[in-house]
Amino acid sequence: MRVCCNDKSEFKVTYDGGSMGNDTVLVCKTHIIKHPFDKRIISKEEIEN
Questions:
Q1: C-alpha of 6 from chain center
Q2: Residues facing 33 on adjacent strands
Q3: What are 15-31's pLDDT values in tens digits?
Q4: Count of CA atoms in the C-beta half-sphere (13 A) of 43
């Protein structure tokens, strides 16, 4: 599964990829509020560590 960066992933986010299909990415707490990670979200699940 793809990740946004090397920081600790805190969210499992599914994005609307349009005709390309949905995309799931593990996202850290810094990037969850930054473009493009804050757009076209279908679901967001907090990862329990």
A1: 13
A2: none
A3: 999 999 999 999 999 99
A4: 8
CB 41 within 8 A of CB 15: yes
Tally of structural domains, the chain: 1
Tell me the whole-structure pTM to 2 decimals: 0.88
Write down the pLDDT at residue 49.
Answer: 65
Q: Which residue has the higher pLDDT, 12 or 49?
A: 12
Cα separation of 3 and 1, whole Å? 7
Q: Counting beta carbons within 10 angstroms of the beta carbon of residue 28, is it exposed (0 to 12), middle (13 to 18) or buried (19 or more)?
A: middle
- Are the CB atoms for 2 and 36 separated by under 8 Å? no
Structural domain including 20 reads 2-46
